[in-house]
Amino acid sequence: MLTYLLEMLLKFGAVMVVANEVRGLILTAPVFYGIYQAGGTLAAIWLGICSLGGIALSVVVPLLAARKLKAFVRRKQAVVAD
Question: Which residue would you say has higher pLDDT here, 3 or 71?
């Protein structure tokens, strides 16, 4: 029962990860536009890199967490099956 619940949560999480990816893509447009509006100055580029790094972390960390949780569920299912 617990593994079934975890499996369902993983499927829901996968949908949320896809939504997070789309959100990350949408958030990058204002960053690039801001760099363009600032004339591509070094400060604007640096702030843009920092902003894009934060956006990338907010997208990549949930992907890694989902992968670890999926491996955990598979290990639990293997233990239950034995």
Answer: 71
